[in-house]
Amino acid sequence: MKPFQVGLLGAGVVGGGTFAVLQRNQEEIRRRAGREIRITHVADVDLARARRVAGDAAEVGNDARALIARPEIDAVIELIGGTGIARTLVLEAIAAGKHVVTANKALLAVHGTEIFAAAGENGVVVAFEAAVAGGIPIIKALREGLTANRIEWIAGIINGTTNFILSEMREKRIDFATALADAQRLGYAEADPTFDITGVDAAHKATILSAIAFGVPVQFAKAYVEGIVDLQAADIAYAEQLGYRIKLLAITKRREASANHAGGIELRVHPTLVPSRRLIANVEGAMNAVMVQGDAVGTTLYYGKGAGAEPTASAVIADLVDIARLATADPDHRVPHLAFQPAAMQDLGVLPIDDVVTAFYLRLQVADETGVLARITGILAEHGISIDALLQRPGAAGAGEARTDVIILTHDTVEGRMTAAIAKMQALPTVLAKIVRIRKEDLA
Which fold does the domain 139-305 belong to in CATH? Predict the structure, then answer.
Protein backbone atom coordinates (compact mmCIF):
# COMPACT_ATOMS: atom_id res chain seq x y z
CA MET A 1 0.00 0.00 0.00
CA LYS A 2 1.33 3.44 -0.89
CA PRO A 3 2.52 5.63 1.98
CA PHE A 4 0.01 7.93 3.63
CA GLN A 5 1.41 11.36 2.74
CA VAL A 6 1.08 14.27 5.14
CA GLY A 7 1.70 17.99 4.91
CA LEU A 8 2.76 19.83 8.07
CA LEU A 9 1.72 23.47 8.59
CA GLY A 10 3.88 24.97 11.34
CA ALA A 11 7.37 23.80 12.30
CA GLY A 12 7.47 25.12 15.85
CA VAL A 13 7.95 23.14 19.04
CA VAL A 14 5.09 20.67 18.46
CA GLY A 15 5.76 20.46 14.73
CA GLY A 16 9.37 19.58 15.41
CA GLY A 17 8.34 17.02 18.01
CA THR A 18 5.84 15.44 15.61
CA PHE A 19 8.43 15.11 12.86
CA ALA A 20 11.00 13.63 15.27
CA VAL A 21 8.66 11.08 16.89
CA LEU A 22 7.28 9.98 13.52
CA GLN A 23 10.81 9.45 12.19
CA ARG A 24 12.03 7.67 15.32
CA ASN A 25 9.06 5.30 15.66
CA GLN A 26 8.36 4.85 11.95
CA GLU A 27 8.47 1.04 11.98
CA GLU A 28 6.26 0.71 15.07
CA ILE A 29 3.76 3.17 13.62
CA ARG A 30 3.71 1.36 10.26
CA ARG A 31 2.95 -1.94 12.00
CA ARG A 32 -0.03 -0.34 13.74
CA ALA A 33 -1.36 1.70 10.84
CA GLY A 34 -0.88 -0.97 8.19
CA ARG A 35 0.98 1.47 5.96
CA GLU A 36 3.80 3.96 6.15
CA ILE A 37 2.90 7.46 7.33
CA ARG A 38 5.28 10.06 5.99
CA ILE A 39 5.45 13.84 6.35
CA THR A 40 6.49 14.76 2.82
CA HIS A 41 5.99 18.54 2.89
CA VAL A 42 6.47 21.22 5.56
CA ALA A 43 5.29 24.83 5.32
CA ASP A 44 6.38 27.56 7.71
CA VAL A 45 7.00 31.30 7.35
CA ASP A 46 10.41 30.66 8.93
CA LEU A 47 12.14 28.57 6.26
CA ALA A 48 15.30 28.10 8.33
CA ARG A 49 13.27 26.64 11.18
CA ALA A 50 11.38 24.36 8.78
CA ARG A 51 14.67 23.08 7.32
CA ARG A 52 16.02 22.37 10.81
CA VAL A 53 12.94 20.28 11.51
CA ALA A 54 12.69 18.40 8.21
CA GLY A 55 16.29 18.14 7.08
CA ASP A 56 16.35 16.22 3.80
CA ALA A 57 13.34 14.08 4.71
CA ALA A 58 10.65 16.46 3.39
CA GLU A 59 10.16 19.28 0.94
CA VAL A 60 10.15 22.67 2.68
CA GLY A 61 8.37 25.87 1.67
CA ASN A 62 6.61 28.92 3.05
CA ASP A 63 3.38 28.65 1.04
CA ALA A 64 0.74 26.78 3.04
CA ARG A 65 -1.84 27.07 0.29
CA ALA A 66 0.49 25.49 -2.25
CA LEU A 67 1.05 22.59 0.15
CA ILE A 68 -2.70 22.09 0.62
CA ALA A 69 -3.25 22.10 -3.15
CA ARG A 70 -0.80 19.27 -3.82
CA PRO A 71 -2.84 16.28 -5.04
CA GLU A 72 -0.59 13.67 -3.40
CA ILE A 73 -1.17 15.03 0.11
CA ASP A 74 -3.68 12.84 2.00
CA ALA A 75 -3.82 14.80 5.28
CA VAL A 76 -2.74 18.16 6.67
CA ILE A 77 -1.47 18.78 10.21
CA GLU A 78 -2.30 22.31 11.41
CA LEU A 79 0.04 23.48 14.17
CA ILE A 80 -0.05 27.22 13.46
CA GLY A 81 -2.42 28.12 16.29
CA GLY A 82 -4.88 30.96 16.71
CA THR A 83 -8.24 31.53 15.06
CA GLY A 84 -7.22 33.66 12.06
CA ILE A 85 -5.18 32.18 9.22
CA ALA A 86 -5.45 28.75 10.85
CA ARG A 87 -9.22 28.75 10.33
CA THR A 88 -8.81 29.78 6.68
CA LEU A 89 -6.24 27.07 5.96
CA VAL A 90 -8.18 24.32 7.75
CA LEU A 91 -11.33 25.14 5.78
CA GLU A 92 -9.32 25.23 2.54
CA ALA A 93 -7.79 21.84 3.32
CA ILE A 94 -11.24 20.40 4.03
CA ALA A 95 -12.61 21.86 0.78
CA ALA A 96 -9.68 20.25 -1.06
CA GLY A 97 -10.67 16.86 0.35
CA LYS A 98 -7.79 16.59 2.82
CA HIS A 99 -8.14 15.10 6.26
CA VAL A 100 -6.99 17.47 9.02
CA VAL A 101 -5.20 16.90 12.33
CA THR A 102 -5.00 19.90 14.65
CA ALA A 103 -3.81 20.76 18.15
CA ASN A 104 -5.63 24.09 17.99
CA LYS A 105 -8.09 24.21 20.90
CA ALA A 106 -8.94 27.89 20.38
CA LEU A 107 -9.88 27.26 16.76
CA LEU A 108 -12.21 24.37 17.61
CA ALA A 109 -13.72 26.04 20.68
CA VAL A 110 -14.68 29.11 18.65
CA HIS A 111 -15.22 27.74 15.12
CA GLY A 112 -15.69 24.01 15.71
CA THR A 113 -19.33 23.91 14.60
CA GLU A 114 -18.43 25.41 11.22
CA ILE A 115 -15.35 23.23 10.77
CA PHE A 116 -17.04 19.93 11.66
CA ALA A 117 -19.99 20.72 9.39
CA ALA A 118 -17.60 21.42 6.50
CA ALA A 119 -15.73 18.17 7.18
CA GLY A 120 -19.00 16.24 7.13
CA GLU A 121 -20.02 17.78 3.81
CA ASN A 122 -16.67 16.89 2.25
CA GLY A 123 -16.37 13.39 3.74
CA VAL A 124 -13.11 14.05 5.58
CA VAL A 125 -11.98 13.70 9.18
CA VAL A 126 -10.90 16.51 11.50
CA ALA A 127 -8.95 14.88 14.35
CA PHE A 128 -7.98 16.86 17.45
CA GLU A 129 -6.72 14.61 20.27
CA ALA A 130 -3.79 16.97 20.81
CA ALA A 131 -6.08 19.96 21.39
CA VAL A 132 -6.92 18.92 24.97
CA ALA A 133 -4.47 17.74 27.65
CA GLY A 134 -1.52 17.08 25.33
CA GLY A 135 -0.48 13.45 25.52
CA ILE A 136 -3.47 12.27 27.58
CA PRO A 137 -5.91 10.44 25.25
CA ILE A 138 -8.99 12.03 26.81
CA ILE A 139 -10.77 12.74 23.51
CA LYS A 140 -10.56 9.09 22.46
CA ALA A 141 -11.68 7.98 25.92
CA LEU A 142 -14.79 10.15 25.74
CA ARG A 143 -15.61 9.47 22.08
CA GLU A 144 -14.97 5.73 22.12
CA GLY A 145 -13.96 4.12 25.42
CA LEU A 146 -16.87 5.58 27.40
CA THR A 147 -19.45 5.53 24.61
CA ALA A 148 -21.77 3.19 26.59
CA ASN A 149 -22.04 5.75 29.39
CA ARG A 150 -24.24 8.71 30.06
CA ILE A 151 -21.57 11.20 31.12
CA GLU A 152 -22.60 13.09 34.25
CA TRP A 153 -19.67 15.44 34.77
CA ILE A 154 -16.07 16.17 33.89
CA ALA A 155 -13.57 18.04 36.06
CA GLY A 156 -10.03 18.62 34.91
CA ILE A 157 -6.70 20.29 35.53
CA ILE A 158 -6.03 21.05 31.87
CA ASN A 159 -3.59 23.94 32.02
CA GLY A 160 -0.11 23.02 33.22
CA THR A 161 1.09 26.60 33.66
CA THR A 162 -1.55 27.48 36.25
CA ASN A 163 -1.16 24.15 38.02
CA PHE A 164 2.58 24.76 38.33
CA ILE A 165 1.95 28.25 39.74
CA LEU A 166 -0.58 26.98 42.29
CA SER A 167 1.76 24.15 43.33
CA GLU A 168 4.57 26.66 43.88
CA MET A 169 2.32 29.00 45.87
CA ARG A 170 1.27 26.14 48.16
CA GLU A 171 4.64 24.45 48.60
CA LYS A 172 6.80 27.57 48.94
CA ARG A 173 4.23 29.86 50.60
CA ILE A 174 4.83 32.54 47.97
CA ASP A 175 2.45 34.98 46.29
CA PHE A 176 1.07 34.76 42.76
CA ALA A 177 3.46 37.28 41.18
CA THR A 178 6.53 35.47 42.54
CA ALA A 179 5.25 32.07 41.42
CA LEU A 180 4.46 33.41 37.93
CA ALA A 181 7.97 34.86 37.61
CA ASP A 182 9.41 31.45 38.60
CA ALA A 183 7.21 29.72 36.01
CA GLN A 184 8.43 32.08 33.28
CA ARG A 185 12.06 31.69 34.30
CA LEU A 186 11.76 27.88 34.18
CA GLY A 187 9.90 27.84 30.88
CA TYR A 188 6.51 26.70 32.24
CA ALA A 189 4.86 30.01 31.34
CA GLU A 190 5.05 32.08 28.17
CA ALA A 191 6.39 35.62 28.14
CA ASP A 192 2.72 36.60 27.73
CA PRO A 193 0.84 34.11 29.93
CA THR A 194 -2.54 35.88 29.69
CA PHE A 195 -4.55 33.02 28.17
CA ASP A 196 -3.22 30.64 30.85
CA ILE A 197 -3.56 32.71 34.01
CA THR A 198 -6.96 34.16 33.08
CA GLY A 199 -8.40 30.69 32.46
CA VAL A 200 -9.10 31.19 28.74
CA ASP A 201 -6.88 28.32 27.59
CA ALA A 202 -8.60 25.90 29.99
CA ALA A 203 -12.00 27.19 28.88
CA HIS A 204 -11.20 26.46 25.23
CA LYS A 205 -10.42 22.87 26.18
CA ALA A 206 -13.42 22.55 28.50
CA THR A 207 -15.69 23.69 25.67
CA ILE A 208 -14.47 20.82 23.49
CA LEU A 209 -14.83 18.26 26.30
CA SER A 210 -18.36 19.48 27.06
CA ALA A 211 -19.45 19.12 23.45
CA ILE A 212 -18.16 15.54 23.26
CA ALA A 213 -19.51 14.53 26.66
CA PHE A 214 -23.06 15.77 26.16
CA GLY A 215 -23.55 15.89 22.40
CA VAL A 216 -23.98 19.66 22.24
CA PRO A 217 -22.45 22.31 19.96
CA VAL A 218 -19.21 23.98 20.99
CA GLN A 219 -20.24 27.02 23.05
CA PHE A 220 -17.11 28.81 24.21
CA ALA A 221 -18.81 32.21 24.28
CA LYS A 222 -21.17 30.94 27.00
CA ALA A 223 -18.48 29.54 29.30
CA TYR A 224 -17.86 31.18 32.69
CA VAL A 225 -14.13 31.91 32.95
CA GLU A 226 -12.19 33.03 36.02
CA GLY A 227 -8.42 32.79 36.35
CA ILE A 228 -5.93 32.69 39.22
CA VAL A 229 -4.59 36.25 39.04
CA ASP A 230 -6.37 37.39 42.20
CA LEU A 231 -5.74 34.24 44.23
CA GLN A 232 -3.96 34.96 47.51
CA ALA A 233 -1.46 32.84 49.39
CA ALA A 234 -3.53 33.23 52.58
CA ASP A 235 -6.47 31.39 51.00
CA ILE A 236 -4.26 28.54 49.81
CA ALA A 237 -2.98 28.18 53.38
CA TYR A 238 -6.46 28.35 54.95
CA ALA A 239 -7.79 25.82 52.45
CA GLU A 240 -5.03 23.41 53.44
CA GLN A 241 -5.88 23.83 57.12
CA LEU A 242 -9.45 22.81 56.25
CA GLY A 243 -8.31 19.73 54.32
CA TYR A 244 -8.47 21.16 50.77
CA ARG A 245 -6.20 22.21 47.95
CA ILE A 246 -6.97 24.92 45.42
CA LYS A 247 -6.79 23.96 41.74
CA LEU A 248 -7.85 25.76 38.59
CA LEU A 249 -10.54 23.34 37.45
CA ALA A 250 -12.42 23.13 34.18
CA ILE A 251 -15.86 21.75 35.04
CA THR A 252 -18.75 20.73 32.85
CA LYS A 253 -21.86 19.04 34.22
CA ARG A 254 -25.19 17.88 32.94
CA ARG A 255 -28.02 19.11 35.17
CA GLU A 256 -31.58 17.92 34.82
CA ALA A 257 -34.39 20.39 35.34
CA SER A 258 -36.18 20.19 38.70
CA ALA A 259 -38.70 22.18 40.69
CA ASN A 260 -35.84 24.23 42.18
CA HIS A 261 -33.27 24.36 39.41
CA ALA A 262 -33.17 24.97 35.67
CA GLY A 263 -31.81 22.21 33.47
CA GLY A 264 -28.88 22.55 31.11
CA ILE A 265 -25.10 22.30 30.96
CA GLU A 266 -22.66 23.86 33.41
CA LEU A 267 -19.48 25.04 31.65
CA ARG A 268 -17.07 26.87 33.91
CA VAL A 269 -13.39 27.40 34.70
CA HIS A 270 -12.30 28.85 38.04
CA PRO A 271 -10.14 28.25 41.12
CA THR A 272 -11.74 25.45 43.13
CA LEU A 273 -11.26 23.92 46.56
CA VAL A 274 -10.87 20.14 46.17
CA PRO A 275 -10.60 17.73 49.15
CA SER A 276 -6.92 16.87 49.58
CA ARG A 277 -7.78 13.16 49.73
CA ARG A 278 -8.88 13.20 46.08
CA LEU A 279 -6.24 12.00 43.62
CA ILE A 280 -6.74 15.04 41.41
CA ALA A 281 -5.94 17.34 44.34
CA ASN A 282 -2.47 15.80 44.44
CA VAL A 283 -1.63 16.49 40.80
CA GLU A 284 1.31 18.84 41.10
CA GLY A 285 3.63 20.86 38.88
CA ALA A 286 2.79 21.18 35.19
CA MET A 287 0.93 17.87 34.99
CA ASN A 288 -2.67 17.53 33.79
CA ALA A 289 -5.49 15.28 34.99
CA VAL A 290 -9.11 14.81 33.98
CA MET A 291 -11.86 13.09 35.99
CA VAL A 292 -14.90 11.75 34.14
CA GLN A 293 -18.03 10.50 35.89
CA GLY A 294 -20.12 8.04 33.86
CA ASP A 295 -23.29 6.32 35.01
CA ALA A 296 -22.01 2.82 34.21
CA VAL A 297 -18.26 3.03 34.77
CA GLY A 298 -18.31 5.42 37.75
CA THR A 299 -15.32 7.74 38.14
CA THR A 300 -12.30 7.45 35.86
CA LEU A 301 -9.11 9.52 36.03
CA TYR A 302 -6.68 10.33 33.21
CA TYR A 303 -3.27 11.73 34.14
CA GLY A 304 -0.16 12.79 32.25
CA LYS A 305 1.76 15.55 30.54
CA GLY A 306 -0.56 18.17 29.10
CA ALA A 307 1.98 19.97 26.94
CA GLY A 308 5.44 19.70 25.45
CA ALA A 309 6.81 18.74 22.06
CA GLU A 310 6.71 14.95 22.25
CA PRO A 311 3.66 14.41 24.50
CA THR A 312 1.60 16.53 22.13
CA ALA A 313 3.24 14.86 19.14
CA SER A 314 2.10 11.52 20.56
CA ALA A 315 -1.51 12.66 20.24
CA VAL A 316 -1.01 14.17 16.77
CA ILE A 317 0.49 10.94 15.43
CA ALA A 318 -2.21 8.81 17.07
CA ASP A 319 -4.73 10.84 15.08
CA LEU A 320 -2.74 10.28 11.89
CA VAL A 321 -2.76 6.52 12.52
CA ASP A 322 -6.53 6.56 13.00
CA ILE A 323 -7.03 8.49 9.78
CA ALA A 324 -4.65 6.26 7.82
CA ARG A 325 -6.60 3.21 8.96
CA LEU A 326 -9.98 4.71 8.12
CA ALA A 327 -9.19 6.93 5.13
CA THR A 328 -11.04 4.61 2.73
CA ALA A 329 -13.92 3.84 5.09
CA ASP A 330 -17.45 5.02 4.38
CA PRO A 331 -17.67 8.46 6.08
CA ASP A 332 -21.03 7.48 7.60
CA HIS A 333 -19.33 4.69 9.55
CA ARG A 334 -16.54 6.71 11.10
CA VAL A 335 -16.64 7.84 14.72
CA PRO A 336 -18.47 11.20 14.70
CA HIS A 337 -16.29 14.22 15.41
CA LEU A 338 -18.17 15.05 18.64
CA ALA A 339 -19.04 11.41 19.51
CA PHE A 340 -22.75 11.79 18.71
CA GLN A 341 -24.24 11.48 15.23
CA PRO A 342 -24.66 15.01 13.78
CA ALA A 343 -28.43 14.64 13.48
CA ALA A 344 -28.64 13.58 17.15
CA MET A 345 -26.85 16.60 18.62
CA GLN A 346 -28.87 18.52 21.22
CA ASP A 347 -28.77 22.27 21.66
CA LEU A 348 -28.86 22.20 25.46
CA GLY A 349 -28.28 25.64 26.91
CA VAL A 350 -25.28 26.56 29.03
CA LEU A 351 -26.48 27.71 32.43
CA PRO A 352 -25.50 31.23 33.53
CA ILE A 353 -23.17 31.24 36.50
CA ASP A 354 -25.92 32.52 38.81
CA ASP A 355 -27.82 29.24 38.21
CA VAL A 356 -24.86 26.97 38.98
CA VAL A 357 -25.09 24.87 42.15
CA THR A 358 -21.90 24.43 44.15
CA ALA A 359 -20.43 24.90 47.62
CA PHE A 360 -18.27 27.86 48.62
CA TYR A 361 -15.26 28.99 50.61
CA LEU A 362 -15.61 32.52 51.99
CA ARG A 363 -13.00 34.63 53.75
CA LEU A 364 -14.11 37.82 55.48
CA GLN A 365 -11.83 40.26 57.24
CA VAL A 366 -13.96 41.71 60.03
CA ALA A 367 -13.70 43.91 63.09
CA ASP A 368 -12.95 41.81 66.14
CA GLU A 369 -15.98 42.76 68.18
CA THR A 370 -19.06 41.14 69.69
CA GLY A 371 -21.95 40.22 67.39
CA VAL A 372 -20.10 40.31 64.07
CA LEU A 373 -20.18 36.56 63.50
CA ALA A 374 -23.86 36.37 64.44
CA ARG A 375 -24.74 39.00 61.82
CA ILE A 376 -22.77 37.15 59.12
CA THR A 377 -24.27 33.75 59.84
CA GLY A 378 -27.69 35.36 60.07
CA ILE A 379 -27.38 36.76 56.54
CA LEU A 380 -26.36 33.36 55.20
CA ALA A 381 -29.37 31.78 56.91
CA GLU A 382 -31.67 34.43 55.42
CA HIS A 383 -30.54 33.32 51.96
CA GLY A 384 -30.98 29.62 52.68
CA ILE A 385 -27.23 28.92 52.81
CA SER A 386 -26.06 26.38 55.39
CA ILE A 387 -22.57 26.33 56.89
CA ASP A 388 -20.36 23.25 56.71
CA ALA A 389 -17.31 24.54 58.62
CA LEU A 390 -16.06 27.78 60.17
CA LEU A 391 -12.65 29.09 61.25
CA GLN A 392 -11.57 32.28 62.97
CA ARG A 393 -7.96 33.41 62.74
CA PRO A 394 -6.23 36.62 63.87
CA GLY A 395 -5.97 39.07 60.99
CA ALA A 396 -3.52 41.86 60.33
CA ALA A 397 -4.09 44.90 62.50
CA GLY A 398 -5.16 48.01 60.65
CA ALA A 399 -5.73 51.64 61.59
CA GLY A 400 -5.44 50.79 65.25
CA GLU A 401 -8.37 48.34 65.26
CA ALA A 402 -8.28 44.61 65.93
CA ARG A 403 -9.25 42.46 62.96
CA THR A 404 -9.96 38.80 62.47
CA ASP A 405 -10.30 36.52 59.45
CA VAL A 406 -13.51 34.51 59.35
CA ILE A 407 -13.33 31.53 57.00
CA ILE A 408 -16.58 29.76 56.12
CA LEU A 409 -17.24 26.63 54.08
CA THR A 410 -20.83 26.23 52.94
CA HIS A 411 -22.93 23.35 51.68
CA ASP A 412 -24.17 23.39 48.09
CA THR A 413 -26.26 26.39 47.14
CA VAL A 414 -27.29 28.30 44.02
CA GLU A 415 -24.63 30.83 43.08
CA GLY A 416 -27.16 33.64 42.71
CA ARG A 417 -28.13 33.26 46.37
CA MET A 418 -24.50 33.43 47.41
CA THR A 419 -23.95 36.57 45.33
CA ALA A 420 -26.89 38.27 47.04
CA ALA A 421 -25.70 37.19 50.50
CA ILE A 422 -22.16 38.44 49.84
CA ALA A 423 -23.50 41.82 48.72
CA LYS A 424 -25.41 42.13 51.99
CA MET A 425 -22.44 41.04 54.10
CA GLN A 426 -20.08 43.36 52.25
CA ALA A 427 -22.30 46.30 53.18
CA LEU A 428 -21.81 45.66 56.92
CA PRO A 429 -19.58 48.35 58.49
CA THR A 430 -17.74 45.61 60.40
CA VAL A 431 -16.60 43.88 57.16
CA LEU A 432 -13.33 45.65 56.48
CA ALA A 433 -12.13 44.26 53.12
CA LYS A 434 -13.48 42.72 49.97
CA ILE A 435 -14.93 39.27 50.69
CA VAL A 436 -13.05 36.40 49.05
CA ARG A 437 -15.25 33.79 47.38
CA ILE A 438 -13.88 30.52 45.93
CA ARG A 439 -16.08 27.65 44.76
CA LYS A 440 -15.71 24.19 46.28
CA GLU A 441 -16.30 20.78 44.64
CA ASP A 442 -16.16 17.45 46.45
CA LEU A 443 -15.94 15.45 43.19
CA ALA A 444 -17.45 12.44 44.91
Answer: Dihydrodipicolinate Reductase; domain 2 (3.30.360)
